[in-house]
Amino acid sequence: MMTITEPEKLIWWEQRFLDALLPEYNINPIAGSSLGTKRTPEQCAKLLGNKRALGNSNAVGLKHTLEYCAAMSARQLGVPLTAVHRAAISAGNKGKKLSSKTKKKIAAGHIGKKCPAVSEANAKRICSPETRAKHSANGKLRTHSPKTKEKMSAAQLCRWVAVRLAKEQGVRNVVE
């Protein structure tokens, strides 16, 4: 049976035919809706497979392959974030505390790696003689507070005593 109608009346006509004919093989009792549909596990697996084949990333429970994740990451490399986006990320991370387990994982991931941004910046940094002179002068002007000097003296005395005791006991390779 074929009926010609306007697109906005299509669902109304479909529901009329469903009510009148009571089709045996139609699993959707309501026109234009999948509400109330009972699917077998096989049907669910088939639908999920179709969604993956179509590249639907909004499928619930969908896991991206490592290759796809790498491709998404490569697409975003070098794309600068807007000031609004950076502010939103910063606001979202404010007040978050990392667990010690998470901190250890992050630290383990950084072992043996250099920060490329810092490495490149340091490699390109060439100071003029005037700038070097300013840095040198600033370093010479810095002095420690009397309290800090006292702590440093006490620490030096402790090291000196520890080295002397170690030498008296015959311990080798003591760093003075």
Features:
single chain, about 180 residues, mainly alpha, elongated
Q: Give the end-to-end Cα distance, rounded to a whole number of Å.
A: 100 Å
Note the beta-strand portion. under 5%
Number of DSSP helical runs = 8
Query: What is the CA-atom radius of gyration, in angstroms?
Result: 35 Å
Find the count of extended strands (DSSP E, 2+ residues): 0
Helical coverage, percent range: 55-70%
Decide which structural class fits the backbone. mainly alpha
Spans of at least 5 consecutive residues with low confidence:
none
Q: Shape from CA axes?
A: elongated
- Largest sheet: number of strands, sense, barrel closure: none
- SSE string, helix = H, strand = E? HHHHHHHH
Summarize model confidence as the mean pLDDT. Answer: 79
Description:
By secondary structure, the chain is an all-alpha fold. Among the domains are: 7-56, no CATH class; 148-176. Helices cover 59% and strands 0% of the residues. It has eight helices and no strands. The protein has helices at 10-21, 41-53, 66-76, 83-93, 100-110, 116-124, 129-141, 146-168. The longest helix is centred in the last third of the chain and has 23 residues, at 146-168.
